[in-house]
Design brief:
The structure is a single chain. By secondary structure, the protein is of the alpha+beta class. Helix content is about 40%, strand content about 15%. It has a 5-stranded antiparallel beta sheet. It is flat and about 70 Å long.
Length: about 240
């Protein structure tokens, strides 16, 4: 490379750096983009997207083998790994073409920091995570131990998925929902959901936490009948029964 100077060097083209160079260039910056592998980085090419397609195929096989539990005769179930891999490649290609539609959401914090005067980071922000096991595990906020270490007075609520009507109807009763509450302020401090679509259910609680809603708002909320979200009524109402 010839000796040149740049305003910005972006290393890697995965989730954060995928479209940031475009925004910087449009803003008049001279940008160098460094990528040692495939454009798009790990997420689209070998991480998030391809692994989740494999998980979906495995789950489809698992559900097919459970057919008898639902009164459905399926016969022998086999997995065509070549077809599974081809599906994975096709979805990754589609995801790659659709990346521009997600450009703003994926690079907004970095863009704010570099193009504006913002100082966007993870400090003092709710950073959730989901583990794509079966059933899913979604987590956000504090655990009871972490809250106690901050000398907070805490209350805990826990509900087995077997007590959630939608989970019973679909035969997905493994796992539980759990929430940690500040006993003094009634604020939700954290939550964990291990169960079918656990990450999606956890995100509902995360939004409530972002809005600083007391747990009573979730206990009394009207959720669509029959959704897994209805279990949140029972989870938070259980605090009043303690």
């Amino acid at each position: 490379m010839a000796d040149e100077s740049y305003d910005v060097m972006v290393i890697g083209t995965s989730q954060g750096g995928r479209f940031l160079p475009i925004d910087l260039a449009k803003a008049g910056r001279k940008v160098a983009l460094v990528e040692r592998g495939h454009l798009g980085g790990v997420c689209v090419n070998s991480g998030c997207t391809p692994t989740k397609t494999m998980v979906a195929s495995a789950r489809a096989a698992h559900q097919a083998r459970r057919g008898a539990e639902y009164g459905v005769r399926t016969g022998p179930v086999s997995v065509d790994l070549a077809a599974v891999r081809e599906r994975r490649r096709a979805i990754c290609r589609t995801a790659g073409r659709g990346r521009s539609a997600r450009r703003r959401s994926s690079s907004t914090p970095l863009r704010t920091n570099l193009l504006g005067q913002g100082k966007v980071g993870t400090r003092d922000r709710l950073v959730p995570y989901t583990v794509f096991i079966d059933p899913q595990l979604g987590r956000v906020g504090m655990t009871e131990r972490q809250a106690a270490e901050q000398n907070r007075s805490v209350r805990g609520a826990k509900l087995p998925m077997s007590a959630v009507i939608r989970a019973l109807e679909t035969g997905e009763t493994r796992g539980f929902m759990k929430a940690v509450i500040d006993a003094d302020t009634q604020q939700i401090l954290g939550a964990a959901v291990l169960g079918v679509e656990g990450g999606e259910i956890m995100t509902i609680i995360q939004v409530a936490m972002l809005g600083e809603l007391p747990y009573t708002a979730m206990a009394n909320a009207v959720f669509t009948h029959r959704l897994l979200a209805e279990g949140l009524n029972s989870l938070f109402m259980s605090l009043d029964a303690q």
